[in-house]
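RESIDUES AND SHAPES:
===
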Amino acid sequence: MKKETNYKKYIELLVMMILIIGIMTYSMSLDFVDTLKPESSTEKVFMIVGIVFMGFLVLGVHELGHLLMGLWNGFAFQLYVVGPLGIKREDEKIKVYFNKNLGYYGGVAATSPVDDHKDNAKKFAQVLLAGPISSFLFAILCFGLAYFLGKPLGILFYIGGLISIAICIATTVPSSSGMFFSDRKRYQRLVNPGKDQDVELALINIMGKFAKDSSYKNVPKNDIDILVADDIPFIKFIGLFNLICYQLEVNGEISEEASLEYENHSKKMSKQLVLGFNKELDKFKEHLMEEENKKLA
């Protein structure tokens, strides 16, 4: 089974590379592209600096597609990060900050359901598709601007178009990128009945139930158990995190078994990821203490 999965992964990567190289080769054969090439040293420096900017802009557009679709569907804003720019919801306030987490430099956007509405799954599927679609449309816009603007801006938009179409392909052709599923794969998991759909629905249900009152009291334990039982390390880790939060609030303590399993499983995850989840766990503990103090006051 593992060999089958690896074989499929290699095929997907090969198809992705063929598509990206093919599009780049074809686009460079177009007559107008020759007129965009920098000639002077000033133009070359401008192009190099501009490429870095365009890279972040293209990533930002992709994540903005996810974000805007989430907001359009009534989800709550949580996080938007591209390169050094970070915007997050913290203590019910929107804060802009300097992002130091290199893991987020490639871009990340997050919105969450504000309730457990029956259409959340459908809405979230739309959020997943919005990123690749935004990248594809932005690529077309960039190529059009490159054609009409000419030097010196044209080369930047041309490169921006190439990066944007590459991101569109990279988030749709492969099934995963590292430990994370691609946008296309998550969409398929969400809309096709079966075990994978149960996991995706459990994730959405947990977010929706918790978002109602920042509490796990109404979160079905069965949904958490579905995540914990999954054989994908990252999903199991999320499940264990939610299990600990659930036990803290509902039982008043963390079971030794859950604590040990979370600790052992954390070793399989990246340090940055575990650090982020542990910070959220500390915040949740503080939230529970504040709620308890309010009751005693």
